Amino acid sequence: MPTGRIDLNLLEYLDVLLRERNVTRAASHLGLSQPAMSNSLRRLRVLFDDQLLVRTSEGMTPTERANELQPVIREVLAIVDKAVQPQTAFDPTSDERVFRIMASDYAESTILPRLLHRLREEAPGVSLDIMTPSDVSFLDVEQGKVDMVINRFDSIPQSFHQKIIWQDSFACLFSAENPIRDNFNLETYLQAQHVWVSKTGFGVGVGIDPDDVQRLGWVDEALTSLGRKRHITVFTRHYQAAMLLAEQKDLIVTIPTRAARLQRQNPRVIIEEPPFAIPPIDLKMAWSPLLQNNPGHQWMRRLIFEVAREQDEEN
Asked: What is the dihedral angle through the alpha carbons of 220, 226, 230, 234, rounded to the nearest 10 degrees?
């Protein structure tokens, strides 16, 4: 039976006929004349190549084929009805949805605390499943398996929706006992040992080549433009680990300013502006076009942007 021949109205008529088992009552229920209902039954018999309802001593009785069709037709009609109904508004106060968000630990540590505070106030039943960049592929996002990704991206599929959450500068973090604190300039910066930290994009990372300046990123590209190079002792993909290493007396960590500010109350470290210019970076949120018009997803995106703006105002 070619699907192009199916009239959804006929399926609704059959559902009522099988429930009423009477052409006159079915016609009355549907607001049709009896001749129109009889004509519809004839069309249904042709469509399914079966009598569907036969007259017996007990009245109109469904055939075996009709009994098989009845639950299927009801399921189809229910799906269609749900599809054409207006989309249900998202109510954060009662929803219990889990939002799956991929975020670097830079994004996670700067955004998550305030975001959780807002969720406890506005959406106590909503949960977050925070995933690392290594957990997620482009395909996962494209298919809507992950609600959104928050990171710095060198490239991203054109089909994805994206928006800049904020732009961030860089700061240097080092031990309060590091002798460089008394004479912090480009020359002493280059004489020191450094912790490299970055995790952009998606997927499992690969080992770093210290001579591949483009893959090293913003800080080292800025130094290269000056004809200079820093000595990197440790390569890590975790900002929290890098900030702990900054407490060692002979290491400097150069990271986005918002991450460095998380250590403002730590007396063991000092935060300074870099002694050379580094172009700012964009922290972006990206998501699948499949989720663009989802009310719950729209609400969460707005909330994340509000949290980011609140942080900007405080800083």
From this structure: 0
Domain count of the fold of the chain: 3
Domain span including residue 213: 170-279
Q: Tell which residue, 44, 38, 42, 33, has the closest CA to residue 9.
A: 44
Let me know whether 131 and 178 are in one domain: no
308 in any annotated domain: yes
Q: Are the CB atoms for 240 and 170 separated by under 8 Å?
A: no
Q: Is the pTM of this model over 0.70?
A: no
The phi and psi torsions of 270 (rounded to 5 degrees) equal -120, 145
Looking up tokens 């305030």 gives 114
pLDDT per residue as tens digits for the range 100-119: 999 988 889 899 999 999 99
Which residues have CB under 8 Å from 156's CB, separation 6+?
162, 201, 284, 286
Q: How far apart are CA 3 and CA 33, in angstroms?
A: 27
- Residue 27: which H helix or E strand, with range? helix 23-30
Domain shared by 202 and 267, yes or no: yes
